[in-house]
């Protein structure tokens, strides 16, 4: 898989060399590149933005640099997808991450200021994604979140494949509580069932805890669940 991020702040992507993302690149599971939008500026001053028509305050990223930057990646020739990170996109979910992990080439367009010229959204962008009902200063952080969520689903990205299969949302519900040593910490003990070695009881405890947590914290998900959700012994 190849992932290109179009940005005016490539230095923000330094963390992509760390942890799981860094190891996945070292293993050759995916290739990550930043595409510096100012390399496609309309003049020698590096201009990539302009004032919006209609008189509202702020700046808009111009279509010419964006079109050139996107086309320079070869994503269309590769049959890949161009994704624009924007607050008015569709909510990002585990399901979307899983679908994107099957692509061979993704281009993530990081907006800034008031966003990008809408003609680019109409002609070059295949999908628009939002990471939540809030606004951040640019698309770089959302792009890193999307990249992380997608890459960790690639075979070999995680040390234990099963770890990703039991994460929140992987089975349609929130994850269950997890514990490690010591058995008692400041008067609070690990639930006895987890110490029992009885795999069927442990699986049922996890199921009940996941359903309880989902009902309490995400009633929107819980109301659409088929309550026969089961969890294997992971």
Automatic annotation (TrEMBL):
Give the catalysed reaction(s), semicolon-separated: guanosine(37) in tRNA + S-adenosyl-L-methionine = N(1)-methylguanosine(37) in tRNA + S-adenosyl-L-homocysteine + H(+)
Q: What is its main location?
A: cytoplasm
Q: Which GO terms describe its biological process?
A: tRNA N1-guanine methylation
The tRNA methyltransferase TRMD/TRM10-type domain covers 1-223
Keywords carried by this UniProt record:
Cytoplasm, Methyltransferase, S-adenosyl-L-methionine, Transferase, tRNA processing
Domain of life, per the record? Bacteria
Chain residues that bind S-adenosyl-L-methionine = 111, 131-136
Question: What EC class is this?
Answer: transferase
Compartment annotation: Cytoplasm
Q: Which GO terms describe its cellular component?
A: cytosol
A single MF term (Gene Ontology): tRNA (guanine(37)-N1)-methyltransferase activity
User: Known EC number(s)?
Assistant: 2.1.1.228
Q: Does the keyword Disulfide bond apply?
A: no
CDD domains found in the cross-reference section? TrmD-like
HAMAP family in alphabetical order: TrmD (MF_00605)
Family named by the database record: Belongs to the RNA methyltransferase TrmD family.
What the entry lists under NCBIfam families is as follows:
PRK00026.1, trmD
| Subunit annotation | Homodimer.
Function field: Specifically methylates guanosine-37 in various tRNAs.
Q: What is this protein called?
A: tRNA (guanine-N(1)-)-methyltransferase
Name of the encoding gene:
trmD
């Amino acid at each position: 898989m190849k992932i290109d991020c179009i940005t005016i702040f490539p230095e923000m992507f330094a963390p992509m060399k760390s942890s799981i993302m860094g190891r996945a690149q070292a293993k050759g599971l995916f290739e990550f590149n930043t595409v510096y939008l100012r390399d496609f500026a309309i003049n020698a001053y590096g201009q990539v933005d302009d004032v919006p028509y209609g008189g509202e305050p702020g700046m808009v990223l111009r279509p010419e640099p964006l079109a050139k930057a996107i086309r320079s990646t070869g994503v269309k020739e590769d049959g890949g997808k161009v994704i624009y990170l924007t607050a008015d996109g569709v909510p990002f979910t585990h399901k979307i991450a899983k679908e994107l992990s099957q692509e061979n080439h993704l281009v993530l367009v990081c907006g800034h200021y008031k966003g990008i010229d809408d003609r680019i959204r109409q002609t070059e962008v295949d999908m628009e994604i939002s990471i939540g009902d809030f606004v951040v200063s640019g698309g770089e952080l959302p792009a890193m979140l999307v990249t992380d969520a997608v890459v960790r689903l690639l075979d070999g990205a995680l040390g234990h494949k099963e770890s990703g299969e039991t994460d929140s949302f992987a089975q349609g519900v929130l994850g269950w509580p997890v514990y490690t040593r010591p058995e008692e910490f400041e008067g609070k003990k690990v639930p006895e069932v987890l110490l029992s070695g009885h795999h069927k009881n442990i699986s049922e405890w996890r199921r009940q805890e996941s359903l309880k947590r989902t009902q309490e914290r995400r009633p929107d998900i819980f109301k659409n669940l088929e309550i026969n959700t089961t969890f294997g012994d992971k």
